[in-house]
Amino acid sequence: MDPFGCVKNQVDAENMMASLNASGWESAPDADDADIIIVNSCGFIESAKQESINAVLGWRRLYPEKKILLAGCLAQRYSKELGEALPEADLLFGNTDLAEIVKAAAKALGKKPRINNPAASGSKAEGLSAAGSLTGARPLLSLPGSAYVKISEGCNNCCTFCAIPLIRGGLKSRTIPDILEECKALLKRGIKELCLIGQDLGSYGLDLQKDGPEKKSQLPLLLEKLSKLKGEFWVRLLYIHPDNFPLPLLDLMEKDERFLPYFDIPFQHGSEKMLKNMNRHGNTKVYLSLIKTIRMRLQDAVIRSTFMTGFPGETEEDFAELLKFQELAKLDWVGCFAYSREEDTPAYNMKNRVAKKTATMRKSSIEENQIPISEKQMDRFVGREFTCLVEEKVEGEDRLYLGRLPCQAPDVDGSTVLSSDKELVPGTFVKGRVFARAGIDLELKVK
């Protein structure tokens, strides 16, 4: 399995692997030993789409006789087009019913029809239900000790730049009992960090309720149920739309330190005009107020965000407002993306498009400006004691390890370098003192 794209796609890959394993297939440690190569693709932005296509072409060059199955978002979104334009893939498989991967893999080996995409033929997308019984026992592609738990699929926010509703459909939330069972199974396996993911966690459960004044996010209720579970573990929330932030989360985090005060809130921009054109309903005043509230309530709150440059109509004045917002917000971590023009999104036909070169230069400015901000934000953890999740041993070094603190999410933030007088086990917690910062990374001495 060759996974691309976001962690939500990673969970899909894990569930497909679980379905295949349960049906008698075995994961090959090396492509040389495989009967079929599955590329689980991303179709979100142009660079990700090209990366997935290049993967198919690369595998075909290396293994001209093997079967290659293109799965995931790209196959879902462009099944008809790729069925005609990408003969290097023996079969295309969307993401509406992951359990069907078993039939698709068999079909690829039997040279059956090349498109196995229920949604492409007009059937309803079932989303998360496909491999539900296998979620807690699935193979994990994360580093030891951490697992992603997808609590919802799709999105109803309909940002004008975003193709997710086209690929994944509208919001479809899992039930709380279903999520709890998965979390229990993962904890029983020794997982120490449960990363809850979805397109927008703040909207979780809205689709499971009737319209009315009592309708509200069920995320706080889910966390309340999770708080009843016993044991030492972390719960990390990844991606909460700033317009849908449920403030009761802060109450729960004050009561239970296992709910990490880490917030991934994609503000996207600092210009009210740009936000409005993106179909965002907030503004910098509202967003700065949210940031202030979080930090006042939770001393060690860490806030990560993403910004977008080059959205149609973005002027120098708009970009200056984004830079000002970045300076005032002093976010701990920031990722930045240049706008990608995606077919069938409302922004696709917007006028006053920004030159790609300009968008890229603005992106670089944001990234350069963020480095000293992140460094200063990390300084506040130096000299203090924390629990750290050990992830892996540093190759060639004696008793030197890499891990993460509560302020660091998997893959996207800095790391913590651990020095220890004893052997450590990846996937376990240790306690230690942060004694230095090296760039955006932290250094910790294990007790």
Write a structural description.
The chain folds into 3 domains: 2-121, Rossmann fold (3-Layer(aba) Sandwich), CATH 3.40.50; 127-379, tm_1862 like domain (pyruvate-formate lyase- activating enzyme); 385-446, Beta Barrel (OB fold (Dihydrolipoamide Acetyltransferase, E2P)), CATH 2.40.50. 33% of the residues lie in helices and 21% in strands. The chain contains 13 helices and 18 strands. It has helices at 7-22, 46-62, 73-77, 79-85, 101-109, 164-168, 176-188, 219-226, 248-255, 272-277, 284-297, 316-329, 356-379; strands spanning 2-3, 36-41, 67-72, 91-93, 115-116, 146-150, 152-153, 172-173, 193-197, 234-238, 259-264, 302-309, 333-338, 385-393, 400-404, 416-419, 429-438, 441-446. Helix 8 (219-226) links the parallel strand 9 and strand 10. It is globular, with a radius of gyration of 22 Å. The model is unreliable at 111-115 and 117-133 (pLDDT under 50). This is Ribosomal protein uS12 methylthiotransferase RimO. Residues 141-376 form the Radical SAM core domain.
